[in-house]
Amino acid sequence: MSGIDHATERALGLLQDCPTDRLGPAAAEAVALFAAGANVPAVDALADLLESRLGDPAAIGRVGDLLAEGPTPMAKLLAGRLLTLAARTDDAIAACTQALASLPGIEPDALAQRARLLAKAKRFEEAAADLQAALTAYPPYPFFVKSERLIERIIASGLWQPRRKIKLAVLASSTTALLAPLLRASCFRNGVQADVYEGPYGAIHQEILDPGSGLYRFAPDAVLILVNSRDLALPPSGGMQQAADFCGQLRARWSQLRDRLPCHVIQVGFDCPPAGAWGALEEMIPDGRRRVLAEANRLLLADLPPYVSFIDPGEVALQFAGPFHNAVEWHTARQYPASAALPLLADHVAAHCQAVLGLTAKVLVMDLDNTMWEGIIGEDGLGGIKIGPPSPQGEGRLELQRYAKELQGRGILLAVCSKNSLANAESPFRSHDSMLLKLEDFVAFAANWQDKASNLRAMAEELSLGLDSFVFLDDSPIERAWVRRELPQVIVPECGPAPWDMLAALRRGMYFESLALTKEDFERHRSYKANADRRRTEQAAGSLEDFLRGLELTARHGPVDEAALARVAQLTNKTSQFNLTTRRYTEEQVRAMAESPDWWCRWFRLTDKFGDYGLIGVIFARTGETWEIDTWLMSCRALGRQLEQFMCRVLADAARTGGASAIRGQYIPTARNGLVKDHYAELGFKSESEEGRFLLDLSAASIPTCDFISTSEPAPNRI
Amino acid sequence: MDHLLRLQRIFRDAFDDDALTITPQTSHDDLDGWDSVQQVKLILSIEAAYGIQFDIEQVTRFKTVADFIAAIESQQSSKA
Q1: Which residue in A127, A603, A705, B19 has the fewest CB atoms around it within 10 Å?
Q2: What domains are there in chain B, each with its CATH number?
Q3: Minimal CA separation from A147 to chain B, in Å
Q4: Considering its fold, how many domains does chain A have in total?
Q5: What is the ipTM for the molecules in this complex?
Q6: Contact B59 A335 (CB under 8 A)
Q7: Per-residue pLDDT, B66
C-alpha cells in the first residue's frame, strides 16, 4: 500500500516522457510492466497522470478503449479508471467486471472502484454487494476513509436490502467521529443497517442520567459504552478504591439505562496501556496499576446482567497485533484506540450487534482434503494424510478440528462438503487414530463429485436452515469463488491454505459470536441428528398417519418466563418459514410483552420417541374481547407434526377462559413464509375483508383436534 | 511523481466525488465537509499512502492543499 514501487516509477516514467499522441501505446506498454495481479495504487497513479496529460475526455476515452482490449487485469482496471474519467460509466463497469473476473481472491480496492461506478449508474444493490465483498477481506483503515461516504450513500439510497436494521448509540470518553462510520461499515458488511447515534464527547454519565438526553430521544436497540484506562487516572499503586468506585458507577448506569429503555448494552472493558514507569512492579505488587486494571474488568464482568455483553480490548489488541495505542492521535484528536485498530474494534461491536439481532451463523461446513486433514485422502491414502503431531501441519489440522468440536459444544452444527468418493471421505473418520471429529459429529455429510453449491443448497433444504446461516470453509480459492458466485448469501471466509490461516479466518470473522447459552444450544446437535433418524423412519412408514402415530409425540406448553426468554427471542429472530408475521423481537421487547397483563405469551415444546425437539413453538397474542395474534411461529424442525392444531387448541382454550369471543390472526407474506399462507384457513379461521386477516369465532367454531399429540400437564416453567 | 495528482485521488475518494479538482490553493473553505474530522481522516490516508508520518506541529498548521504538499516534501527529504 505505502509508497510507490519500482514498477510504478518506471511505468510513470514511460508516460511522462512520451509525446501526447503516443500516450495510448505507451500506456499499454506501461501496464505490461506489472505482473498478472492487481496493483490498484499503480492504476490510480497511471490514470491520474494520463488524465493530467491528455486533459480532453474524448482523448482519455480513446486510450481507455485501447487498454480495455489489453490482456491483463491491470490493463482493464486502468481502462475502467480512464473510461470513468471520460464519463462513460457503462463501458467503465464492463472493463472493471472483466478485470475482476480474472483476479483470484478478493481485491478490496478493485471492488470499491467498480462499486463507485455502479453507484454512479444508480445500480446501488450491485454496488452494495461489491463493497460487502471488499470488506470481507478486512482492508486496513485508509480503505474506510475512501469508501465510507460511498457506503453511506448506498444505504441512504434505500435500494440496498439489509437483513435487519439496528439503532446503535455510542457513548464514549474518547472521540467517536472516526469509529461511527466504521460501525456502520462493519454492520453493513454483515447485512445489517446500523443507524448510529454519537453521544457528546465524554458524557457517558450525563446522557444516561438525563431523561431528556439525545440518547433517549434516539431510542437505541443497543448502546455501546467505550471507556479506556485513562478514565481511571490510576497511580502506579494504590488505585483499587478509585477503580472500584468507577466500576460501581458504570454498573449503576447500566441499570438506570435499562429502567428507561429496553435496550442491549455493549460494554468495552479497560485496555492495558503501555508499560508504566514502575514497569513489572505494576503487575507484581498487589495494588499495582496493571493489576488494578485487570481487577476493574473483573468487577465489570462479575454477575454480568443478561442484557450486557462485554468486549475485552486486551483481546482486540492481541488480535490486532499492532500498536493499539497511538499517543499522537490521543493528544491531537482524543482518538482511542489507534485508528489502525478501529476496524477490528468495530467488527467486534458488529458481531455483538449481529448476535443481538439473532443473526449468528448456525452451521460450519468444512471441506476435507487440506482442510480437515493435511493431504489428499484419495491420493495419499490413510497412511499419507497428516493429522496431529509430529507434522506441524497435522497438528494445525487437529487444532482446527478441536475448534470445530468446541463450536459444536455450544450449538453450532457441523457438516462436511467434499469432492471425494464417500468411502474415501469416511475412512479417516472411521480408521485414523488421530482424528478428533467423528462421523457422528456431522449433521450432514456430502462427499461426492457434484459442485459444492448444489451440495450446500441440498444441505440447507435437508436441515431446513437458511443458507445465510452457513459458513463454508475450504482451502481451494476456486471452490470459494464458485460458492460465493452461486450462493452469495453463504459466508465464505477468505483464508490462506495453512490450518492456522483457516483458524485465524474463523476467529477474525466472529461469525458464531453469541451472547448467551440456551439449553437448546447444548442439545442442538443431538436434536438435528435425531431428525435425520426420523427422516429414515418417515421413508419407511406407509402413510403419514402411521408415521405420526409411530413417533409417539408429546407436547408441553407454558407462559414465557425468564427461563424461556432467551430461546423465545432467538426463535422470533431466526424463524422465517413457519412465521405468520415475521416480527423480530429483542429479548428486552419479549420480556416487556411477557410481563404485560395485556399479552398472552406462550411457548411450546415437543418430544417424540427419538428425542426432544426442544422449545419450538411460540404464540404472542394481545388479549381483549377479540384476541389478536401478533406472532405465531414454529421452528422448522417441528413442521409436519400437526403441532399447529395443538397450539390452536391451547390458544382457543385460553382465549375462552379469558372471556374472549373471537381470535384474529394475520398473515404477512414474505419471500420465505409462503408455507403458511393457508395456515389460518386450515385451522377454521374465516377470511376477513381486510387482506391477510382471519377471524376465529369462538362461539361457533369447532377447533380441529389433534389426534397424534398427547399432552403432558402444562409444564412448570422450565425449559 | 506529482503530489497534487496523488492528493487529488485521495481527496476524490474521501469526498466521494469523482470529478473533484484540487489546486494548491484549495482550502478548508472551498470544500464542503472539510471539517476537523475529515482533516484527521485525510492526514491518516496520506500518511498511509506515502508511508510517512507528519509531525504534530506541521499537522496543526495545515489549511490548504499546498500545506500538505510542503509537509510531504519535507518528510520525504528528511527521510532521504
Answers
A1: B19
A2: 3-79 (1.10.1200.10)
A3: 7
A4: 4
A5: 0.89
A6: no
A7: 93
